[in-house]
Each structure stands twice: as structure tokens, then as C-alpha cells.
Amino acid sequence: MADTLVTSSVFKRRLEGKVALITGGTSGTGEATVRLFINHGAKVCIADIQDKLGEQILQSLDSGTHTRFIHCDVTKEDDISKAVDFTVETFGTIDIMVNNTEITGNIVPDIREFDIREFKKVFEVNVNGVFLGMKHAARVMIPRGKGSIISIANVASTIGGVGSHSYTCSKHAVVGFTKSLAEILGRHGIRVNCVSPPYAVPTGVTPLHLQPGERNGDVVKGFSAAVEPHANLKGVDLESDDVAEAMLFLASDEARFVSGLNLVLGGGFTGVSSQQPTIAF
Question: Measuring CA to CA, which residue among 189, 169, 165 is closest to residue 177?
Fold first, then answer.
């Protein structure tokens, strides 16, 4: 992952002049998206609860007036509202809203042993957080008659057996909300889409249901190895930068007529066979 900005005159900056607010932007796919958006000319506000990582990213980017960080818990409406207001006050507007914050929840195969508090916790972040991000981005975008809202979903939004019960349900909800809001906000010129990578994308922080000390390279490779054999596309290992590239496409004018889409990055995992084996992580 590059730490420096690309300034070559032959490099096409696809987000030149645009402003993005990215939740969960201090690590993993969120960090990759922040860096890629800045490389493509966007001004970015990072909203996250990981303050120290946020400051480290700002220092590593050394992007002057291009990037800001604000503490934000996506489960709290006041935090989301303040993050939106802060972005507008700092950069003048919001063209792109990326709802990237998520948690996976614990794997509890037996529904009889599933704690409702665990279920609610996952929904608070994965669904309520997306709802609040969409709601407050819309109040800025609707008067302008344009904008792009992108949320993180997952291949678990299309099939079962690749995540916890709560995670799978939450990602189905994100896709449903994306389609529902695309119809409403489309009347105001606002595009609403989501991106669905596999359950585990190789980053330094996945899978999120593990404790920090357990998130080592071998574990992450193991998760990826569990997904890859079932994908049709061979010879390609999905990385966080690939998810960021999908975000970039949906944020850019190249996708100006794309809305209501769940862009699945599954290497054929969800579409080439009806005999998908259950993956018990």
C-alpha cells in the first residue's frame, strides 16, 4: 500500500475536486480507500473511534489540507451528525459518503445458544451505523442534487453459511437498504450502492471478531484459504486495495448511471455453482 501521493501528469485523477467522508477509515479496507481516494484528487475526512491510528494516517499521508480526522462512533447519531458537519465546515461539502465501519460478531452455530445482545451489537454497527451515515449524508446531498453513497456489505449478503448469523442478517439488511434508498434518493440525483467482498479480506485487522493478538498473518491467510477454493477465479488473491478500487469506481463519474448495485467481489464464489459448501470460520 503506497504511503505517498501519486502526482504524475499522466495519472488520471478520477475524484479531482470531490470531498469524501469515510467511516472506519483508519485500518483495513477503509484505510486503503482513504489512500486511494486521496491519490485520485479527493479531500477526505476520516471518521473512526481509533484516534491514534487516525493521527498516524494523517502524518503518513503528509497531504496538507487534503485530509482530516474526527472521532466518530457510528452507533451514535450525534457523532455521525458532527462528522458530516465537520466535513462540510472543513471542505465545503460532501460528494461521497462511504459507510465502511463493520464488525463480524461471534460464530455461534447453534441458534439456541445465541445471545440476543450479540445480535443487537452487530446490528447497531453494521445496520444502524449505515442508516445514520446515509441519513446525514442525504441532508447535505439532497439540496445539491447529487452525490454518491457507498456502504460495505459482504458476500454473506447473497448466501448463507459464510459468516455469523448476526453478520449475515446485517449484510442482507445493508443491501436491502441500499436498494430502497437508491429509489428514493435517485429522484435527487444521488447514487446509492454497496460493495460485497468475501468474509475475510487479508488486512492487518481481519477477521474482526478475533482479539487483536489473534489477528496475525497465519490466521488471515487461513481465512482467505477457506474462501479461495470455492471461487471460480484462480490465481488472484483479493486484497484490501481491490475493495478500495471498487469503492473508487462507484464514487467516480465513471459510475454516473450506476445505482442500487451490490457489487460482489467474490471471484465467482456466489454465482458459479448452486452447491456452495458451508464455510464454518
Answer: 169
Peptide bond into 143 cis (omega under 30): no
pTM as predicted: 0.85
Q: Kindly list the distances between the CA atom of residue 5 and the CA atoms of 13, 35, 37, 58, 281, in Å, as whole numbers in the listed order.
A: 11, 8, 10, 12, 37
Number of folded domains that form the chain: 1
C-alpha cell at position 246? 471498487
CATH number for the domain including 140?
3.40.50.720
Active site residue 199: no
Helix %, strand %, coil % of the chain (to 5): 45, 15, 40
Q: Which of 37, 69, 131, 167 is catalytic?
A: 167
**Does residue 223 sit within a domain?**
no
Is 271 inside a domain boundary?
Answer: no
Is residue 115 included in any domain, yes or no? yes
pLDDT per residue over 82-93, tens digit each? 999 999 999 999
Which among 36, 39, 1, 37 has a CA at the least distance from the CA of 19? 37
